[in-house]
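tRNA (guanine(26)-N(2))-dimethyltransferase
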Amino acid sequence: MAEKLSLLQSLDFPAKWYREGRVEFVAPVFPTTKVGEPAAPTRSPVFYNPYSALSRDLTVVLARTFGEEVVAAEPLAGSGVRAIRLLVETTTVARVLMNDINPNAVKVMRLNAEWNSVAERCEVFEGDAAVFLTRLSGWRDRVQYVDVDPVGAPVKFVENSLRAVANGGYIGVSATDLAPLVGNHPETCFRKYGLFSGKTFFAKEAAIRLLASFVIMRGASLNIAATPVLSVQHRHFVRVFFHVLRGRSRVIKLLEKMGWIKACKCLHSETHPLHDFPAKICPRCGGEAAVVGPAWLGPLHSGELVEKMLSQSNDLPKARKILERISGEVDVVGYYPVDRIAHVNGSTPRSPIVLVASLRSMGYRASLTHVDPTAVKTDAPLEDVLRAAAG
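Structure:
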């Protein structure tokens, strides 16, 4: 206890001890907002968001599926907890490279690595994330995993992260600026991501598909095919993990699954290939529909990878719970919130579980979704969804 107190006193800012997974570490004490989120996290002496623990849990579980000892890099490491957990809680990560531009973070990373007895397997860097990643872009220096978890948009770091990933490796990318991605601020989305967002009835999934699209297109310009293998929305963030392979032919094949999403308030939705920009008039009600894209229209998850991750997640119950939900999801574009269905039907909302059962009894695939507990995903035509919801 005395040693812990001494380490806290060695820092130039208020800090405390935390525990996450099997790692005990130091991070700052800072105020929270009324809803419990960190207040002004960019002004914290060292960034650590306890509400992103699930994101780190999933990273650990993914790393456990790697087939050999690998090197992982975190260009925006903050307290270093994610990278240190990869060393402590997996047998597949042999070494980590941790970087942060904040000198306080560098000090805390080193302290935390020493405390968890992994300092000899950590390389700690102080500097700009883009410069750090550029140093890893040569084929001899590339790593098998890069994690991009910024405050806000990841756009400044994606291209260099893709360059830094070895062929066959993985990259995890988070975005916490959900308002532009879900269509609340389309101009901001276009300015940041170069993509069109809009108001859809499956806004959080649209955000995931736009983030995936951004990473895919950044990779395409480099002849890097970044294929989404796990996509998650939770609380304040969306996160997509990608499998990275190089080659022009792979990129061309991947781009075939990019396109446009058209969605109307009446719950009509459709997808279009990249070369076919859709008119905004809804063919069902004649109203104006939202057009979102270019968006990733392909699978959001690799079923094989999700099953492997489930087998490695017994000690991380929150990660296991969301993986179980994902494993049962019907992989189609969009979902139907039951309150929106009821509004269109002019009826009382049905339970999502009851609606799923009803759609399955009609011969369709249907499931709940981790993105919205009040919604269903199904391959049923809209009119049959409305009929099933009417009872």
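The CA atoms of residues 49 and 247 lie 37 Å apart.
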